[in-house]
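Hey, I was hoping to borrow your eyes for a little while. A protein chain has come my way and I'm curious about its shape. Take your time with it, there's no hurry, and the full record follows here:
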Amino acid sequence: MSGLNNNSTSYAFVFVCQQGDLEGLSLLLAASLKRFLDCNYEMIAAVPLPEEKWGKLAPKTMTTFQQMGVRIEYFENPISRDKKGNPLTNKIYSLQIPTQMDKLIFLDSDLLCLQDFDPIGKFMSPFSAAPTFKATGKNWDKIYQAVSSEVPSTRIKTLFSEELQPPYFNSGLIAVDAKLASELTGMWLDSFDKIDRSGAMDSNLYFREQVSLAVAVMRLQYQYDLLGEKYNYWVKYQPLDSNDLPYFLHHTWPHPPIYHQPYLKQLVRSLVDDYPAIEPFVQRCRWKYYLRPEWMVKINQWAHQNRHSMKKRWGSDITNWMIHGHS
């Protein structure tokens, strides 16, 4: 099964947005995509329902997305399990949102586009993703037994720790031919359900969604491309080199020492200047540190480095306040 490889390829960039942390994250992500994408594309904010469970987006979020040209689409996630499983499985259902574009690229909301990006000539196979950062998958024999399959003989290296593992992808950025998105979603959900029911991941529940993606791709026998770190750069592992920027930075919850990065501070503030309405939302998510003055960031860093002794002396509340600040 061949992928798309002509210069007229169009792209749908999809990300999940919901009330809370993801609202600020997705607004900043959309602002970065709007600035740096240089191709035939659309942006889609996938919003989970019902509002009683996931919350309601603020009116300013809706109007800012409209200003950016982001299409808002709603979906329901019927999976009703533990709190860790529910939010992560939202990305599976977001792949079912219809698009007229050729290629669907799902992005975790905590990614940020960092430089001019034209995906033409990239994402050539039906499926593309970077390997996981570390070997977080376990019990592969039991996992594949749950779906009545053999563990693949192929071994790939993790993106940053360079450990060998069966094909296993970071689900923060995945690209799939749009015509295959429904098929992939179905197999992903089937794999998730069977693996979950088997108990093979009872000690590793957080990664069920990500492990299930790899299993689904293997079961479907998709040809896949492994993306390098420039497409899913883990800033927690190593700071940025401003002379060699990645296309996409993955901002999982790094600790305060990582927040002293002049390029990121300049970029985040510039994007907020482009869309001032997003500032209060950014102030409530992990990007808030880049809006703070340098003296405050240094206090956050010092408190993090001394957190163990501080907790013994002053307790967790004061320590966390020193690390994370007011907002």
About this structure: The mean pLDDT is 91. The first strand starts at residue 11 and ends at 16.
